[in-house]
Amino acid sequence: MAKFRMVHTEFWDDPRVVEELTPEDKFFFLYLLTNSNTTQIGIYQITKKQMAFDMGYSIESVNSLLDRFTNHHKLAIYNENTREIAIRNWGKYNFNRGGKPVLDCVKSELKMVKDISLIQFVGQRVDKKDIKKLYESYYVTCDDSTEKGKSNEINDLDDTSTIRGQEKEEEKEEEQQQEEFKQDAADFYQQNFGVLNPFIGQCLTDWENDLTPELVIEAMKRALKNQKKWNYAEGILKEWANRNVRTLQEVFALDKEFESRGGNNGKNNSRSDGGIEKQGSSSITGGQVGRLRPKSEGLSMPEVQRPDGIY
Q1: Hey, which of 159, 211, 279, 306 has its CA 20 to 30 A from 124?
Q2: Using one digit for the tens of pLDDT, what is the confidence trace for 50-93?
Q3: Chain segment 209-248, per-residue pLDDT in tens
Q4: pTM: predicted TM-score of the whole model, two decimal places
């Protein structure tokens, strides 16, 4: 699966980059932001030997750069014991979009961090509230537990107010996720299919309006499982639209309906994603996407229509 990292064009206009970073610093900084070990949270494991190999530097040069970025520029921290590095402003520029997929990814990656102090180092610069809360859960709670040892009465009041505050924040998160979910289809496309051009972007928006973002993502997932591209996913969406499918529950219901009658009497079975499954096919994804054309006189074999409408 392809992995992409975002580098803003403002990087080159930042006064610190222009005035303080040397050409070697700029190269090293871009490497820290885009190398293959990077994660969604801005904290990842990497050895000095790998840095030196990737950039063509000596270990001494890498040590010098890490020292400069840690003590002088204060843009990163490297833990010699765990071999983890944290990028200070990662959260400020890499969490422009949210939603459940991003939150789930951040949760799972934070659990893998060995040096918890690195989480606080990055979390302090995260602007997006729902994501910042995930970072804070690793260091704010530690401070709270220390305060709890001072007064039981204050504990009870703090616990009550905290619970109420958490409930309100959870409600806000749900609202934000619903508002941001429309962006997830575009994010999913870029993470799995590649760069999103304006034409495909408009197609995604149209399908999100006609159906739902959930269905658009589900169609792309099914295309990926079959090692197909966007045209395949769009063929699935067309079939769902023709069947007036509007929710994932309705999609799964059609899947079950297909499975329950699959292979009966040696007949072809119409799948919920628009494909035709013949008896003897190995799986639900074994058929072709499309619908059979009506038979015409003189034709003994049906033709299969592809998602792009070509026979």
Answers
A1: 159
A2: 999 999 999 999 999 999 999 999 999 999 999 999 998 887 77
A3: 888 888 999 999 999 999 999 999 999 999 999 988 888 8
A4: 0.46
